[in-house]
Design goal:
By secondary structure, this protein is of the alpha+beta class. Helices cover 16% and strands 38% of the residues. It has two domains: 110 residues, Thiol Ester Dehydrase, Chain A, CATH 3.10.129; 161 residues, Thiol Ester Dehydrase, Chain A (Roll). Helix 2 runs antiparallel to helix 5. The relative contact order is 0.15.
Length: 288
């Protein structure tokens, strides 16, 4: 039986149908719809297959347009907008049933020397002294509905150790900030594109939760409707290898008009900034 980590790597294998057309026909991640991190990672990998070897992803800007259908393949159509001396640009559409469910613009750059600085990593407890998310859920298993227990306690592609614990079934009001340590449950290949894809894959995991913390609700609250609207990511550290603990810190500066904004930063254990993320999502309160 393939484990969760190997299953996530299988999702990075695309079939090339034409020079700029790719298909994923494997098992999709997600509960009711395709997990957004999967589509981000696959769209990036499709674009990367059309880029010169000396250029690498430095930013992506994505829009979630329609829910992805879990039991259907996904087509990725790449538009080679520009090939420059230092930068190249691509746009990618993810398609199901002849409809675009997702679009993303990506920029690739040659590695260059230049001015460098980064913010300080927050002072948080190290991962060794924290329980992982699955252990915390098992400690509170009576709060998890019986039909969801298997899903909420199954192995993931990453071990996640929250610094602040918010039980999704019994939430409390908290400051709009969260941090969690993450580590892959297996060894990632050294290939830079796979490393970037895996980081993009996990970047969609819970970034909007901080926007819910001040209101004492979660994605499992019965009167809350949540959906990702857009996702932006910048990759700062060349040749980063995601095979140790990294810290994902998130905050939400604002929510309103049925939307919430989340911001995130990935740090190495040594405090170096790896990548930055922003995501806005629909946070709609159901009236019935």
């Amino acid at each position: 039986m393939i484990d969760a980590f190997e299953s996530s790597l299988e999702k990075f294998k695309l079939e090339q149908l034409d020079e700029y057309l790719f298909r994923y026909n494997g098992k999709n991640a997600g509960i009711q719809r395709i997990y957004g991190g999967q589509v981000i990672a696959q769209a990036y990998l499709a674009a990367d297959l059309t880029i010169e070897d000396d250029k690498h992803l430095h930013s992506l800007h994505a829009y979630f347009l329609r829910p992805g259908i879990k039991k259907q393949p996904v087509l990725y159509s790449v538009d080679p907008i520009r090939n420059g001396m230092s930068f190249s640009t691509r746009t990618v559409k993810a398609i199901q049933n002849n409809e675009t469910i997702f679009s993303m613009s990506l920029s690739f750059q040659k590695d260059e020397e230049g001015l460098s600085h980064s913010i300080e990593m927050p002072n948080v407890p190290p991962p060794e002294g924290l329980k992982d998310e699955i252990e915390l859920r098992k400690d509170n298993i009576d709060l998890v509905p019986e039909e969801l227990r298997k899903y909420f306690t199954q192995e993931r592609e990453c071990t996640v150790k929250p610094v602040e614990w918010q039980d999704v079934f019994k939430p409390k009001k908290m400051s709009p900030r969260r941090s969690m340590w993450m580590k892959p449950n297996g060894k990632l290949p050294k290939d830079r594109a796979i490393q970037n894809a895996f980081l993009a894959y996990v970047s969609d995991a819970g970034i909007l939760a901080a926007a819910l913390f001040p209101h004492g609700v979660t994605y499992m609250s019965p009167k809350i409707m949540i959906a990702s609207l857009d996702h932006t990511m910048w990759f700062h550290k060349p040749n980063f290898q995601f095979n140790d603990w990294i810290l994902y810190t998130m905050d939400s500066p604002y929510s309103g008009n049925s939307r919430g904004l989340g911001r995130g930063t990935f740090f190495t254990r040594e405090g170096e900034v790896i990548a930055s993320v922003t995501q806005e999502g629909l946070l709609r309160t159901k009236t019935r």
